[in-house]
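Project outcomes to date are best conveyed with an example. Our students and postdoctoral researchers have been running inverse folding experiments weekly, and each run begins with a structure described purely in tokens. The record below, which covers 145 residues, was selected by the lab manager from last quarter's runs and is presented without edits.
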């Protein structure tokens, strides 16, 4: 049994990215990781790693160009920032849905009082990436309605 907990921000961001791009079913099939910064190493303040974009049509083919970050007509719904020991997802769409789902998933969540406002969700371990993906799934589902 593995007892080591993944708490490296870069690795958590990679796992979350895989959760998003690895799904070709459900609401996550409408999301893509875009504009990745492959030089991210993580900082105390957080360093932008990639954006998450939503498209009207689901991405059913894993080889679809959108899976490689070539999203045309997509809408940016979040940005992912890497800290030394966690990931911060800054959501700009379906924020109430994101906050409710994050709380239900047991993730730390808080509003960011800027203009326009954002909802911050913190993913603090590799094991929490599935819960972070569930938040993004709920956001995508809310945008589809």
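After processing, the design step wrote out the following sequence:
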């Amino acid at each position: 049994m593995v007892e080591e907990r993944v708490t490296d921000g870069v690795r958590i961001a990679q796992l979350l990215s895989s959760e998003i791009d690895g799904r070709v079913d459900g609401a996550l099939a409408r999301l893509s990781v875009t504009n990745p910064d492959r030089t991210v190493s993580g900082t105390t303040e957080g360093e932008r790693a990639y954006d998450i974009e939503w498209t009207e049509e689901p991405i059913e083919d894993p080889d679809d160009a959108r899976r490689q970050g070539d999203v045309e007509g997509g809408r940016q719904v979040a940005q992912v920032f890497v800290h030394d020991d966690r990931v911060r997802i800054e959501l700009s769409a379906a924020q109430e849905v994101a906050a409710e789902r994050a709380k239900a998933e047991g993730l730390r969540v808080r509003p960011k009082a800027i203009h326009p406002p954002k909802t911050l969700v913190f993913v603090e371990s590799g094991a929490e990436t599935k819960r972070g993906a569930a938040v993004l799934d709920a956001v995508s589902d809310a945008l589809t309605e």
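The chain has one domain: 9-144. The helical segments are 9-21, 95-104, 129-144. The training component of this project remains on track.
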